[in-house]
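User: Before I run my own analysis I want an independent prediction to cross-check against. Here's the chain; please return only the structure tokens and, at the end, one sentence I can use as a sanity check.
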Amino acid sequence: MTTPRHANRQPARWLRIGIPALLVLVWLAVGSAGGPYFGKVDEVSTNDRSSFLPESADATQVNERLPEFLGDDSIPAVVLVTGEGELTEDQLADVQALADDIAGIDGVLDGVSPPIVSDDGEAAQIFVPIDASGEVGEVVGEIRTMVDEDLPDEMEGWVTGPAGFTADLVEGFLGIDGLLLAVALIAVFVILVIVYRSPLLPVLVLMTSVFALCVALLTVWWLAKAGIVVLNGQVQGILFILVIGAATDYALLYVARFREAIADGAERWEATTRAWRGSFEPIIASGGTVIAGLLCLLLSDLATNRALGPIASIGIAFSVLAALTFLPALLALFGRTAFWPFIPKKPLATIPDDLTQPVKGLWPRQARFVARHARSVWVVCTIVLLAGAVGITQLQADGVPSSDLVLGTSEARDGQDQLAEHFPAGSGSPVYVIVPEDELAATVEVLDVSEGIDSVSVASEDSPTGQAAVELEDGEAVFTAVGPPGTPAPEPTTSEGDVLVIGTLTDTADSAAAEQTVRELRADLDSALGAGTAIVGGETATDIDSNDTSIRDRTVIIPVILVVILLILMLLLRSILAPVILIATVILSFATALGVSALVFNNVFGFPGADPAVPLYGFVFLVALGVDYNIFLMSRVREESLVHGTRRGILRGLVATGGVITSAGLVLAATFAALGVIPILFLAQIAFIVAFGVLLDTFVVRSLLVPALSYDIGRAIWWPSKLWRDGIEKEERMPDSSAELVSEDAHPLTREEYRRTLGS
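Assistant: Structure tokens:
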């Protein structure tokens, strides 16, 4: 049959060069505009945990009203000073001089307290209010420098409290712009050089990823600047890694199709169009699946989760766009030169029709192994994965103390430990209770009887320290004068008829004991005053509300993500059974990754636990990205099945996608593992869970479990689509005896196995 002359007609040469060149120039221009924003992310980001709470949370409401009682919106730092024994008068004078110097630092608000000496006389603490809207990390850094320089050698000082922990957290995120990207890009480059043995192709692929990230960052920066999204270091780090990993994965899928076309002898333009047509649907479906899963985070009550959804979705959208426009343009210009010095010159390995014949190559051998032992393979894989999933019972994802969020050294954590030796452990991070003024006495009574509260005071603008001690006498609140004898007793500050009661915790603010105290206070206040009369906030309450909201989020969002991804797979594969099976395998893989991670966290790394959001984030990335690889595989399987039958299509699809998916899995695992260089507990845990889970998906689920299970099921995998119905008709036309196809003595397969091998 003669091919019509117009079938191979190509655009004019100037269009074949001009269109790719124009696309490259557009990407270079926009990407270059976004590049400088890497150093400006801190201008639009925040790491204040309370700013990410839902508006309905008690801690949020209290935090918003604190300036009404305490003056400026501030975050407290606690400067702790100790000597070699009991502090002398001269040493206390040095501490007072230090307090005076600290008060002069830009960013420190009025109200720096005089030194407060501990009962044992061996330590003194200074409360320093820092402007919460300024650069808290920089201000704390200046205070720490001043403490180191001003104190005599025989004295030692620490800066701790909420501001101290915020500063340590900010410092932990400092490597995101430079170190994290450098580690991720170097890891990806090395893997690509090993896989493709070409110095140029890895550069083109990484250009695709980096420019996608530049454009995404440019977009996100302006959205954060306008207050449309909320950005913090955690979201920023995940955005960087997700875009680099996803864009590289999509690029590798396109490269695989382009390489096939080049190996078949196609010229640059023909190879480009063939590769684009072959990769468009799976890349769009994969990106759409990830975006759909991420946008489910908009259902979260935590602002940080809601922020990640659209921000990461923007990154994925530009990753897809770059893989379908920028990379094709680059390869259209470079052609087969991109693969130098190992330019593909012959069709890639495939699986022979007769599996008794010798096969060459890793993936053809793997395909034959799956065909011969399909049921045994998927049963063994399932048992192994279930065994690993048992460890999920050891996962401690109910929250971690704020002091453990930063890995490695933390001055704030060390200072908090020292503080607890001389003062009530909760000093500097009190419980705040806002109540109507006429309920003040009843509120003080509830706090007084609590074993977890060391002392009670009220906010008072009449007091030099901003607080007045309060006690009960004959059922009435009595305020103790602060200052020299004869100083008038201060009155509590009121706002809208409410007063602010301040309770100093006996235990460290981020401890389990302090959390239990706050939970009991909330219950006791509701019982004594009526539900909703008193609202309780502070650092401990913020931790409680954050953890409780995270647990609620993962309970609601995970099922929604599963349903959304299932529907997308049904549309892509035109089937019901195949998507259900794919979702089941990904869930099993996720459970195994989480179970193994729990054992490693507890017994190898010795982590103190995990944030409740860790399983949710791990689920979003592993399920969405795990389904990516199944989409790559099964979309190719469906394409091959339309021509060769289901079982033959499964084997051919496995061979065709084996190399690219393995490479993509290694790249994605390496990029997420790079998160481990940032000394933040949450990111380190996400790094391990996702990296391990991706490798599990790549080498076990996608390479063995899914092909073997699909092969064992056969044509029914496409039920109830037309492909399933066509398979029935084809099966009915097959000869009854396999001897009519080939002599049974000529191969080691049974008659039934050989019928499976030939396909549906």
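Sanity check: Residues 1-7, 729-760 have pLDDT under 50 and may be disordered.
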